């Protein structure tokens, strides 16, 4: 495994970005992992017509097809304006062809006196040493997997079963910028089906058609904890669910709808 690039994306101006090799997913060096894609769209939502006292609470991506490791353009618009609730829409294109469409709800931040309510325990401590991918054969290790630092606490990549891991990006989303808390959560979010797959990934092709991330608060610190599991049915499809947390406890959920087919 080689060292990661300096960032996931290089800014080109005018909403255009050049994807670096760090964005490549585990299945091919020329196709992006959707984690950086989600982070870039989240960054666009945060910067589009920002309103003080509001936050991005939910982001949903519709993945229209593979996203190449290449030059991309991201645009956003307001669909439903409002002082307390705003619906945003974004589109990512490659050479004029849409590859991702997304929506986000920007909502007014809750008052400070609202009681904190969570339903999962504080995650276990982060292991002292980084996790390796020795048992995950036939995957591309020198892209996204190398650009993230992993501290697995349950299960293992490439093995069937629920899983849990701490993770953080080794590089910023966009060169020359500091990642926001929303971006840190989104960059990890699409790893749910890899962390928590209960199907043998060497036998079954699993492709998510979408990604939804709903956060009731923003993560604190650079490390994010993900606990994920997958459900599947014969003659049906699959759903992967994950809980996101930090050292203070639960902060949100991830949901993916997945196609399952024989390799």
TrEMBL record:
Tell me which residues make up the Acyl-CoA thioesterase-like N-terminal HotDog domain.
24-106
Q: Which SUPFAM superfamilies match?
A: Thioesterase/thiol ester dehydrase-isomerase
* Residue span(s) of domain Acyl-CoA thioesterase-like C-terminal: 131-260
Q: Which InterPro entries match?
A: ACOT8-like_C, Acyl-CoA_hotdog, HotDog_dom_sf, TesB_ACOT8-like_N
| Pfam families per UniProt | 4HBT_3, 4HBT_3C
Question: Entry's Gene3D superfamilies?
Answer: Acyl-CoA thioesterase, double hotdog domain (2.40.160.210)
The name of this protein is: Thioesterase family protein
Species source reads Actinomadura fibrosa
């Amino acid at each position: 495994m080689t060292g990661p690039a300096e960032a996931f994306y290089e800014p080109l101006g005018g909403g255009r970005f050049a994807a670096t090799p760090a964005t490549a997913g585990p299945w091919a060096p020329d196709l992006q992992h959707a984690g950086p894609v989600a982070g870039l769209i989240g960054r666009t939502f945060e910067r589009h017509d920002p309103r003080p006292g509001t936050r991005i609470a939910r982001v949903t991506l519709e993945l229209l097809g593979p996203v190449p490791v290449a030059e991309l353009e991201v645009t956003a618009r307001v669909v439903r304006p409002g002082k307390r609730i705003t619906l945003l829409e974004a589109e990512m294109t490659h050479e004029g062809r849409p590859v991702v469409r997304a929506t986000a709800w920007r909502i007014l931040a809750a008052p400070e006196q609202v009681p904190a309510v969570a339903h999962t325990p504080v995650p276990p401590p982060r292991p002292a040493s980084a996790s390796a991918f020795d048992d995950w054969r036939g995957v591309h290790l020198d892209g996204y997997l190398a650009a993230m630092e992993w501290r697995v606490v349950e299960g293992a990549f490439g093995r069937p079963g629920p899983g849990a891991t701490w993770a953080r990006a080794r590089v910023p989303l966009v060169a020359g910028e500091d990642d926001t808390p929303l971006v840190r959560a989104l960059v990890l979010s699409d790893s749910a089906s890899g962390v928590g797959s209960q199907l043998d990934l060497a036998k079954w092709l699993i492709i998510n058609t979408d990604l939804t991330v709903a956060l009731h608060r923003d993560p604190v610190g650079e490390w994010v904890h993900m606990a994920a599991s997958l459900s599947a049915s014969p003659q049906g499809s699959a759903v992967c669910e994950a809980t996101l947390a930090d050292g203070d406890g639960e902060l949100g959920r991830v949901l993916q709808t997945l196609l399952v087919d024989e390799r």
